[in-house]
Amino acid sequence: MESEFDKQVRLDRARKRVKKIKGFYSHLLVYIVVNIMIVIININNLGPGESYFQYKNFFTLFFWGIGLTVHGLSVFLPNMVLGKNWEERKIKEIMEREEKRWN
Prior knowledge:
Blueprint: H1 4-44, H2 59-82, H3 86-102
Helix pairs in contact: 1-2
């Protein structure tokens, strides 16, 4: 039977995880909106016969995209690589090690 403390710990972890995911989705939304605005501004500022496809028009899209990718990997990759219960297993392992040290 699960104790009230264990339920609270799981609830806190779930809330923390949801907060991280929500942060990533907010970041993604801002990335999309800002880059659409930049594209519109750049198109409006084109000279006659000038092509949009110039490297200067893609700086923000590219470098911010790298940052967004790293953010996404930090949110979603740990569970894919380490497994869903890795954190709980590691906590139990460390607690057992500490308990043996003190006994």
